[in-house]
Amino acid sequence: MAYGENRIIRVIKGRRPRVVVIGGGTGLPVILNALKDQNAEITAIVTVSDDGGSSGSIRNFINVVPPGDIRNVLVSLSDLSKEGKDIFQYRFDSSDSFFSGHAIGNLIIAALNEMHGNIFEAVQILSKMMHVDGHVFPASNEPLTLNAEFVDGTTQAGETEITALDKQIKRVWVTDTDSDDEPKAVLPVLAAIMQADAVVLGPGSLFTSILPNLMISNLGQAVRETKAEVIYICNIMTQQGETDHFSDADHVRVINEHLGGHYINTALVNGAKIDMSEFHPEDYDAYLEPVRNDFAGLREQECRVITDDFIDQRHGLVFHDGKKVGKEIINLAFEAMSRRRMDED
Question: Entry's HAMAP family (predicted)?
Answer without folding.
Answer: Gluconeogen_factor
